Amino acid sequence: MSQMNRRRALQLLAALGTAGLVAGCGDDSEPESAAQLSPIKIGLIAPQVGNLKEIGAEIVNGFQLFLELNQGLLGGHPTELITAEEGDDEKTGRAAVDELLKQGVLALTGVVSSAVMFGIKDTVEQARVPLVGSNASPTNLQSVFYIWRTSYVLDEAGRALGRYLRSLPVSDGPRRIAIIMPESAAAQDVLRGFRQEFGESDPRIKDPVTWTQNFAGTPGKTAFRRDIQAALRRQPDGVFCFYTGAAAIEFIKQLREEGYSGPIYAPGFLTEGTVLESFKDEKDVVGIQTALNYSPDINNAANRLFASAYRKKHGSSPTTYAMASYDAAQVLNQAIRIAGESPSAQDVNLALGKIGQIDSPRGVWQFNQPRTPQQKWYLREVQLDGQVLANVLITELATLG
């Protein structure tokens, strides 16, 4: 069966199975008195403006989808989801947390920016209200008791790709890789993981890293050009990069405009979400290989339910951002139930540590000691799925975490 036909078959199967699966989405142990349990509030922190607003929208979509498939309940409690603007720095992040805490939320979720996650760490810990983060997860966010994450640790994307590229036969892989990244803490995490697995002294990655500006908004049409030119003067036959959203779109376009036609490798954020829709010439992106913890065509029951329901509601395939937020809701659903009929924030936090394996659209995973997922990472490649560009699952890379 061709890759395209296989994907179409999975989508049709998902559509046919959704109605029956929705009834099984909740826990079979849902108490009969669920409607009588007290209402609760969950605070979701996400950017609604700026360069990361599309990721913020995906996070909101994923959490809301879980609620819709579970009659608006978490742990049997009618649940109100309250959103707050994340902004792009410590000050705006703390303001969002303070706003939600004043409204009496039982738990927090969301957070896209690593800078914001660092900025709110102490506030969350002092408030003793659990945060089940669904995106930002910097490597050095450690010694936390109330912060959990359903996404990943950023160095893992670099580790997965570093291990993969190192394993390629010399005849198949690049001999000289240009590393191009924005000056940010997140990029440093990705780079650290990549070098760790590839080999610090490997001559294929000996060239200095080309650091570009880290744009909070949409970069200009020539924003990366000078840095790309500097990197290409070393004549690489492979590029490893790390960009998301509007910056990813402009970086890829400007890289191709400078004449580079070789392979591009990156954490999956480079081609995630609406990025691929921005390319009229598929040759600019077809063949880009990325590592991520999720692909919409993973074939398991949880993903058939999630992906088909998401496509039906939003008219597009889900992203890792939506999936991780959906899982954050799933995790809170289990923890709140474990915490009992009148849970406090501290009860929910303790219950989070008692959750075992999560049956997720990405595949089964569980929290490790640092409160992040132990999970599979996948290699994906941009291909044409009919007339639509898509991140097609190629193979499993590693289990990390």
Structure description:
The protein is of the alpha/beta class and 401 residues long. It has two domains: 221 residues, Response regulator (Rossmann fold, 3-Layer(aba) Sandwich); 160 residues, Response regulator (Rossmann fold). The strands form two sheets. Strands 7, 8, 9, 10, 11, 12, 13 and 14 form an eight-stranded mixed beta sheet that branches. A hairpin with a 2-residue loop joins strand 13 and strand 14. Helix 10 crosses helix 11.
Named at the architecture level, the CATH assignment of the largest domain is 3-Layer(aba) Sandwich
Annotation field: number of helices: 11
Count of structural domains: 2
The count of DSSP E runs of length 2 or more, i.e. the number of strands, is: 14
Apparent shape: globular
Task: Please compute the radius of gyration using only Cα atoms.
Answer: 21 Å
Which features does this protein show?
single chain; 401 residues; alpha/beta; Rossmann fold; 2 domains; eight-stranded mixed β-sheet; six-stranded mixed β-sheet; 39% helix; disordered N terminus
What is this structure's SSE topology?
Layout: H1 3-22, E1 40-46, H2 53-69, E2 73-74, E3 77-85, H3 90-102, E4 107-110, H4 114-127, E5 131-133, E6 147-149, H5 154-167, E7 177-182, H6 185-198, E8 210-212, H7 225-232, E9 238-241, H8 245-257, E10 264-267, E11 289-292, H9 301-314, H10 320-339, H11 345-352, E12 366-367, E13 373-385, E14 388-400
Parallel strand pairs: 1-3, 1-4, 4-5, 5-6, 7-8, 7-9, 9-10, 10-11
Antiparallel strand pairs: 2-3, 11-13, 12-13, 13-14
Helix pairs in contact: 1-9, 2-10, 3-4, 5-6, 10-11
